[in-house]
Design a protein that fits this description.
The chain is mainly alpha-helical. It contains 38 helices and five strands. A hairpin with a 5-residue loop joins strand 3 and strand 4. Helix 6 packs parallel to helix 8 and helix 9 packs antiparallel against helix 10. It comes from Solea senegalensis (Senegalese sole).
């Protein structure tokens, strides 16, 4: 009895100590935590109790997962891996794989235990040892791992073979520059016929990784048919892997092709979306020359795709909608009868709602336009402003084909007097009249009185554009502009100020009596008080342009008001499937942003939208080197023809400020040092001209060029292209001449060391100007006696000649 009581007391003390050790465990990250864990791991009493020892190891793993640095316990954990307890082995192996790279020398102590476990009669232990042996990822241990992996490929247990196959791929990643063992590759190819489907799929993945430099795993006819026959045995992700690998195989005859398609027919309508998408991708790669078969396959996947659109997983739903957009590019009427499946749910996130609205725009026809517009009208008042603006933009896109119905909805939305709704409606109306000029009368009546609600800069820019272009139709246009002009000092948006200048000058041309006084006040403020040089330069341009006469100003500013050539929403030709087949079942459809949602981010509709080209270096596409060689007896105004090269602008040129300054200082000096002081005193400006080679610009409209310049933050005031043809010298080539003007303007006078006033130095402000009328612009840009500002300025002009 006494012995039993003593044992009970010891047990209670042990429990109390255990509880106490938990209670007094220090905070995370302290050295006391690691010290306490080491004391417990080295305690013989704890080691003799398997349960307490496992719980102590579990505390180490918990501390590691919480961010505590327990790497100093590596040697104690190495000793703990020598056990028959599988759970304890798993915990220790997690620790060892995490800290093996920090203790490469101590990791050698684990190899003997792992190699011994590879011969354990329990297949679970063998597979666990193989997996963690390769997860150590230490190049110094490769020689000890090869023999167990080779034996694992021939193991009688499938779970061991699965781990061994993937282990060879991990081993190859550790020594990518070493020679590939042909025996191992042959062994992996032979395992493609393994009875276990997971081993077969793992062999495909391993061979594809090992033979990556040689193009991946080679697929011939026997292997392809073997994989197809065993496709149903694989799980979902195994089937996707097999179908992806089979895209490399090309049937040798038409009969073989149709045999393969017959085997894939059941997978095409699989209830699992990944399998269905992978099968359709294989169909598209096998049948590029059979459009009938391709279209039939697209029809077959309609039901699985619609079912996926109702999936509980939002990610799966979003991916399905994005891939449906791809299909609609070739089959616009594929989902026409099921347009209600794309109506938005209240609880759906904004990114899914916006994608569904883009699909609805593609499905509009005479039968469903009323219901779709009514549905979109409900989304315009969504609590999410992005969703609301996307719905309004979608109504504007549909308005290209059904303008009367859409304008009625847009006009009604203006009555809500909500800031973000009014802004989106005004921008949509601006884009709509650019494409559909017949809507201008309705729009001019609707926008009156909107200036009180508009708060954001994009909406105000759209309203100012409408007032400037249709100032003679909007009765309150001058008075609305006067409100903007009175508040120009508190205006913070650069775009609004520049749009206000242009709109006021345009209204002056049609209603001069009401606009003359306010334009004078606006020009005086922008020239004398405005600190932004872009606004000031634009005001100077308009001031000098008005000095040239009203007719000359009208030629520059009054261009076309619309561009109906952009087409309507309905009736677009279907794209060939081959244009998007390679991106199906990839992440590319998820990254694409529809053009329909981009219009609200642009300043004016003259900026024609276009697809951005990949970012390339400017030097690769535009050769602007100086033409230093001048042939004797040739006309200096005529340049020899150069090869036609596509013209593009680099969005991020690799040119640092220091490099730009170095290149600028290397330019040839026009004036000598001794004459520079004299010239600076006598002249107020300096013009220099340089000719460079540029490729020919084919079919490039002025609006497209202006849009391209704005994408790289180059603001254009006015422009033209001067075409000169000289068949005797250029043959079939023409000569295109444009002008790039560089403004250098000071903001304050400078003083020398004696305190005497001297002429200001030119600071660096770049302004791009392509003059529409050479005679007009030469007068407008001449800083003569009628200059508005008293400071001196220099005008550096470079003439770009393109052949």
């Amino acid at each position: 009895m006494e012995e039993e009581e003593e044992e009970e007391e010891e047990e209670e003390k042990r429990k109390c100590c255990g509880v106490l050790s938990v209670v007094i465990m220090p905070y995370l990250g302290s050295e006391d935590t690691v010290r306490e864990l080491r004391r417990a791991l080295t305690n013989p009493n704890v080691q003799s109790d398997l349960l307490r020892y496992r719980n102590t190891i579990l505390k180490v793993i918990r501390a590691m997962s919480q961010g505590v640095d327990v790497s100093s316990l590596f040697s104690e954990m190495v000793k703990a891996c020598a056990t028959v307890d599988v759970v304890q082995k798993k915990l220790v192996y997690v620790f060892l794989c995490s800290y093996a790279t920090l203790n490469p020398e101590l990791s050698l102590l684990v190899i003997n235990t792992l190699r011994k476990d590879c011969q354990d009669p329990n297949p679970m232990v063998r597979s666990l040892a193989l997996r963690n042996m390769t997860n150590l990822r230490l190049p110094s241990l490769v020689e000890y791992v090869e023999q167990p992996l080779t034996a694992g490929l021939r193991d009688r247990a499938a779970c061991v073979r699965r781990v061994a196959v993937l282990g060879w791929a991990k081993l190859y990643n550790l020594q990518t520059h070493s020679d590939i063992d042909a025996a191992v590759v042959n062994e992996l190819y032979s395992l493609l016929r393994d009875t276990d489907p997971v081993v077969m799929v793992n062999c495909l993945r391993a061979l594809d990784e090992i033979l990556k430099e040689e193009g991946g795993v080679a697929i011939n006819k026997p292997i392809a048919h073997h994989l197809l026959n065993r496709l149903k045995e694989c799980d979902i992700w195994g089937q996707c892997e097999v179908l992806r690998i089979l895209q490399r195989y090309r049937p040798q005859s038409e009969d073989e092709l149709f045999d393969i398609l017959s085997l894939l027919d059941a997978s095409l309508v699989s209830p699992h979306p990944p399998v269905m998408a992978a099968t359709l991708s294989l169909f598209l790669s096998l049948c590029p020359a059979l459009p009938t078969v391709t279209l039939a396959a697209l029809e077959r996947v309609r039901a699985p795709l619609l079912a996926t659109c109702g999936s509980a997983s939002r990610e799966m739903m979003f991916a399905a909608i994005c891939h449906i957009q791809l299909l609609l590019r070739s089959l616009p009427g594929l989902m026409g009868a099921h347009y209600k499946r794309f109506f938005c749910g209240y609880a759906e996130p904004a990114y899914i709602k916006q994608r569904k609205m883009q699909v609805l725009m593609e499905l509009v026809n005479d039968d469903n336009v009323a219901m779709i517009l009514d549905e979109l009208k409900g989304y315009c008042t969504d609590v999410n402003t992005d969703t609301s603006q996307a719905a309004i933009s979608a109504i504007g896109r549909i308005g290209r084909s059904y303008s009367d119905r859409c304008l009625e909805i847009l006009t009604g939305l203006l009555g809500l007097k909500q800031d973000h709704i009014t802004s989106a409606v005004v921008q949509t109306m601006r884009d709509l009249v650019w494409v559909c000029p017949q809507c201008s009368d309705t729009v001019c009546l609707a926008v009156e009185g909107c200036e009180e609600t508009l708060q954001d800069s994009q909406g105000r820019q759209a309203l100012l554009w409408l007032l400037g272009v249709y100032g003679e139709r909007v009765s309150s246009a001058p008075y609305t502009l006067e409100v903007f002009i009175d508040g120009v000092r508190s205006e913070t948006s650069l775009g609004v100020k520049m749009e206000l200048l242009t709109a006021t000058v345009r209204v002056l041309l049609c209603r001069p009596a009401e606009t003359q006084d306010m334009l004078g006040r606006l020009l005086h403020y922008c020239i004398e008080e405005e600190t932004n040089m872009s606004v000031r330069d634009q005001a100077l341009l308009y001031y000098r342009l008005l000095h040239c006469g009203i007719e000359e100003t009208r030629k520059v500013l009054q261009g076309r008001r619309s561009d109906p050539s952009l087409g309507v929403l309905i009736g677009r030709p279907a794209e060939p499937v081959g244009q998007w087949a390679c991106s199906f079942n990839t992440l590319a459809p998820l990254k694409q942003v529809a053009v329909e949602t981009e219009s609200t981010s642009r300043g004016s509709p003259e900026h024609v939208t276009f697809d951005r080209k990949p970012n390339t270096d400017l030097s690769d596409t535009l050769n602007c080197g100086q033409d230093e060689t001048v042939h004797s007896g040739s006309d200096p105004d005529v340049l020899p023809p150069s090869p036609v090269v596509p013209l593009s602008l680099s969005l991020s040129p690799a040119l640092s400020p220091a490099e730009f300054e170095r290149l600028w200082l290397q330019r040839p000096h026009v004036l000598s040092e001794q004459d520079s002081v004299k010239t600076e005193e006598e002249e107020d400006y300096l013009c220099m001209e340089e000719r460079v080679r540029c490729p020919e610009i084919l079919h490039c409209s002025t609006q497209s060029l202006q849009a391209a310049m704005q994408l790289v933050n180059i603001q254009m005031l006015a422009f033209t292209l001067l075409f000169h043809t000289n068949r005797s010298r250029l043959g079939k080539y023409g000569l295109v001449s444009t002008k790039l003007t560089l403004h250098l303007q000071d903001v304050s006078p400078q003083y020398d060391c004696t305190g005497n006033h001297r002429r200001p130095r030119a600071s660096s402000l770049l302004r791009l100007l392509l003059a529409r009328s050479p005679a007009t612009m030469s007068g407008a840009l001449n800083p003569g006696s009628d200059t508005v500002h008293g400071h001196g300025r220099r005008l550096a002009e470079m003439s770009f000649t393109t052949a």
